[in-house]
Amino acid sequence: MQRTRWPYPRWIAHRGAGKLAPENTLAAFRLGASHGYRMFECDVKLSSDGVPFLLHDDSLTRTTNAADKLGADMTGGNHPWSALAQLDAGSWHSRSFAGEPLPTFEAIARYCLRNAYFLNIEIKPTPGLERQTGEVVARHAARLWQNASMPPLLTSFQVPALEAAMAAQPKLPRGLLLDALWPGWLETARHLGCVAIICDHVLWNQVSLTQAKSAGFKTLSYTVNDEATARRLLDLGVDGIITDRVDLLTPVSPCG
Fold first, then answer.
1. Among 34, 157, 163, 181, which is disulfide-ready with 177 (CB 3.0 to 4.6 Å)?
2. Can you say whether the dihedral through the CA atoms of 69, 72, 73, 79 is positive or negative?
3. Is 14 a known active-site residue?
4. Binned average pLDDT, 10 residues per bin, the chain of 256 residues
């Protein structure tokens, strides 16, 4: 994808529907869609048998009932998909989502494809599996979107994961995630062939935004949950806003 071609909507629902539904589940995606969102962000890692699935944390403790099912080992990447598929990923959030399962990346991809939604895939590897995860996620994404007009955006904080994704599927667009403007951030994004840089919103100011845009990158912000911050970023000229508050910052809101 050329840097000048940017088909994605400005508003992106974080982990499906932010905090209004159990994150990284199909239920969250459906809720985000009900608020008018057409693009979603999610986190993808690998099970021990190589199945890409949605989970943000390395541990299963916060967002599943794994402690009741899997014994002492709470690391998601240490279990096969057959065990992970049995977990309840909804009850921790609220009773109304009890029994909601962890979704495979393929299930989420097919939901987005069937509804013409856009997807920002954060490659979220278990430590030590950065390159393997980047390669596998990229290959699955290329297969799933092979007949689609608009590819997903692959992003990560992990440079090795993005390097592996680039080597495996160089035509898929990539974005570098940053929680700090560390030395060489702009050069690293160039090295990775990225089309976008996605920053913690506090890092974007007129200087950093000008640097990124002058280098040809699109600029995105996470995680923006109030109208004042959204307005500041829009006035600066950012290209995308990732939010938990799909109920407040809707694509048809005053800030939209």
1. 157
2. negative
3. yes
4. 74 97 98 97 98 98 96 95 98 98 98 98 97 98 96 98 98 98 98 98 98 98 97 97 95 67
**186-189 contacts: CB < 8 A, separation 24 or more?**
186/211, 186/212, 186/215, 188/159, 189/215, 189/217
- Which position among 35, 56, 191, 201 bears the catalytic label? 56
Structure tokens belonging to residue 154: 């692959």
pLDDT for 5 equals: 72
Catalytic residue (choose from 14, 93, 140, 201): 14
Catalytic residue flag (residue 191): no
Domain edges within the chain: 11-59+103-243
Q: How far apart are CA 26 and CA 49, in angstroms?
A: 22
| Class level of CATH domain 11-59+103-243 | alpha beta
